[in-house]
Write a structure and sequence with these properties.
115 residues; 5 strands; alpha/beta; five-stranded parallel sheet; single chain; globular
């Protein structure tokens, strides 16, 4: 059974990079992707059924990734959150939302694969 993976980053290039890392790491038939550069649009896309795994940026204008993570976890405690950001100072807040991992940009293929 395929899993659903969510990607939300306000940088389209980062979304493209994450997609390419996923294609390298997993068989494309093993997952489907829900993605957006806009946090509120991402919430609309997932509706009441959040993905099993979500990669989130933190520093986004409309709704930061920590608050977005809170909303996703309110829908499903089982959703695995991985934050990808250029800002180290948000690490403790990310773990308050029960993030599984916290990766720093620029994101390498090796760091992504390790997570």
């Amino acid at each position: 059974m395929a899993i659903t993976i969510g990607l939300c980053d306000d940088d389209e290039e980062q979304l493209h990079l994450l997609r390419s890392y996923l294609r390298t790491a997993m068989d494309e038939t093993a997952y489907s992707i829900v993605a957006s550069t806009q946090p509120r649009e991402f919430l609309r896309k997932i509706g009441d059924t959040p993905p099993q795994l979500v990669f989130l940026d933190i520093d986004m204008a409309a709704l930061d990734g920590i608050r977005l993570g809170d909303r996703i976890k309110a829908l499903s405690e089982k959703t695995v959150l991985i934050y990808i950001t250029a800002h180290e100072q948000y690490a403790l807040e990310a773990y308050r939302v029960r993030a599984f991992h916290y990766l720093l940009k620029p994101l390498s293929k090796e760091a992504f694969a390790a997570a």
